[in-house]
Amino acid sequence: MNRLISRISAVLMSVLVLANVFQPVTVNADSDQKDFDEFLKDKWVEMMERDYTGMHFSVKDYRSMGLEKPEVSLGHINYQEFEDSVTESKEALEELHAYDFNALNERQQYDYRVYEANLENTIALDSYPDYSEMFNPHTGNQSNLTTVFTEFVFYEREDIDDYLTLLADYPRYMDEMLEFTKQQAAKGYFMTDRALDVELEQLRDFVAKGEECPFIVIFNGRVDEFEGLEDDERQAYKDRNREIVLNQVFPSTDKAAEELEKLRGSRSIGDQSLFSYPDGKAYYEALTRKKASENVSPQEVFDYLTKAVTDCYNYTLDVALNAGKADAQEVISTMKTPTEMLDYLREHLEGFPKGPELNYTASYLDPSVANPSVMAYYMTTPIDDVTENVIRVNGTNIKEEDMNTLYYTLAHEGFPGHLYQFTWYYNQPDMNPIRHDLDMIGYTEGWAQYVEKIMLNRSPLNPTAQEMTAMNVFLGYCLQAAADVAVNGLGYDEKTLGVWVESTGLGGIDMKPIYEAVADAPGQIIPYGYGLARFWELRERTQSALGENFDMEDYHLQLLTNGPRSFDTVEEDLKRYVEGKGAELPEEYTFFESERSEGMTSMSGILGFIEKHQAAIGIGILVVGLLILVLVFLLLRAIFRALFGRRKK
Which pLDDT does position 79 carry in this prediction? Predict the structure, then answer.
């Protein structure tokens, strides 16, 4: 399906069958391992050669990769495209299943499973085209469209020409998105009015920039930096770009805002949540599997995250109980810029396998092109050159004075988060190129969330501030991910959601903004909350099994080797790893139990002691109460005698 893609991995503001039981339908028993690698490479070539934007962001030099450049176009948006996507994915899945899984080597079996999961997810989700909101400000194609133009890299002169061709294609593509959206709205499918308000504000702010629009400013800067152009050629490119932006892009954007406003209130089936849509439950079940990178149901995710929130809250209480006079609100003051922080993070990668040598830059986004639900993003590096890496920070969501948030956000996007994670895997010599463009978002975002706490524990903050900051992040993402599933997958209303939150021990939380956020962007937060919890759960269980034999670098090597994959597969890998060391991965666990410092007083332990000895404690309280009453009586009698005794005299 030739749809616009954006190669970004962002941090938000808050089934694979095992080899021993898999029985594929083998139609080509003689297919050997070499054939399978070629099959996947051919599929990757097909992906690249039918999607120009996807190819440009996936490879630096398409010729050296043996690729033919497709038509320079933003693609198409219509119902037929979704139908074709499902058909093509089913055909590819049938071709995949023709290979004997058990005849493949270990690395190929990982590739098989990841490709299979991607095809199954595409089939399941693209079967519901009316659920794809093109202009949703948080998850829609419009946000991706903006990123394509602001992050488009000029490797050679041909790329500048292609960029301008794409930019001239902007009005047509916007018109197709609008027409598709109108057809959806006629059936009652449309974003909430809240989401519409945010989208309209973004579109209008973008046009209001005028000559200072990032499409003009960024383009001019990149043309100036490009070597090999004469001055008159540079100016000609700038003039052409400016003309397209002012006379084609802006009018098209204004038109989109006007037409979308006319559709306000078109969401006429069900209430605010996805659960209320006719096939909302089935769609969300498929969305959950994709976003979680695991074959799990919404109910299973909800129950799992409820435990994560409860355990984390109890651990946070214990950290606070043992904090003493430590300043839990301490702020990092030794680093002031994103580059300083990235340099610091890169210098503190103990416990992580060495990655390739590379360069990186980090800068703030122009507010007019910043996704309101994203704090920062990392542009995934091309497969044929991992040396140049880019991170963008959304300054409207991370204020310059909020150094703690900036620090763990850059750990997420940079070291040892996405930048490190992707470049480490892409640098492996036997990686099949198709893995570069397959999606396992629960794994990738989960990893980046997981390392935030590790790097906070290496920050200049005092230990209490480190833990309290990390636990606040953990609680926030897991709580919102659970709310997402509860609202969109299980049908919780705002009141029921509030009752659930109180059951976890958390109280006094206004659930209205959380309810509205997850209703406006279903599934968006799942990879962050569920993936985060999954990585820490697996860490807890492995550390518990190995005890003093737990080696962090060796453990992280198990996670990184074989790349982004299903959590089912990761867990099986860790079971084999632990068994190889003569231990067994336990089923029972408590989040962050291994993180407790020796001698830490436990609030749950105190409460448990009280519950165990409540009878004796009750008698003791009664006795103490009686003694206090006697003392009060004697004190009052003494005062009475002193006052009235003097009067008698």
Answer: 98
From CA 383, how far away is CA 313, in angstroms rounded?
Answer: 41
Closest CA to 454 of 357, 558, 359, 532: 532
By CB atoms closer than 10 A (0-12, 13-18, 19+), residue 410 is: buried
Q: pLDDT band for position 502 (50/70/90)?
A: very high
| Rounded CA separation 341/417 (Å) | 13
Say which residue the tokens 């002193």 belong to.
642
Domain ranges of the chain: 8-286, 296-595, 613-648
637 burial type by CB count under 10 A (0-12 exposed, 13-18 middle, 19+ buried): exposed
275, 491 contact by CB (below 8 A): yes
Residue 242 pLDDT > 60:
yes
- In angstroms, the CA 14 to CA 535 distance is 17
**Using the 8-state DSSP alphabet, how is residue 18 labeled?**
P
The residue written with tokens 């670098």 in the block is 553
Task: Give Cα separations from 601 to 321, 439, 607 (angstroms).
Answer: 7, 43, 11
Token readout for 121 is: 């997810």
Count of residues for the chain?
649
User: Would you state the pLDDT for residue 609?
Assistant: 44
Q: What is the pLDDT of residues 222-232, one digit of tens each?
A: 999 999 999 99
How many Cβ atoms are within 10 Å of 217's Cβ, its own excluded? 14
Task: Please tell me whether the peptide bond between 416 and the residue prior to it is cis, using omega within 30 degrees of 0.
Answer: yes
In the prediction, which pLDDT does 543 show?
Answer: 97
Cα–Cα distance for residue pair 200/206, rounded to 1 Å: 10
Which tens digit of pLDDT belongs to each residue from 403-457?
A: 999 999 999 999 999 999 999 999 999 999 999 999 999 999 999 999 999 999 9
How many other β-carbons are positioned within 10 Å of the β-carbon of residue 212?
10
Q: Is 72 helix (H, G, I), strand (E, B) or coil?
A: coil
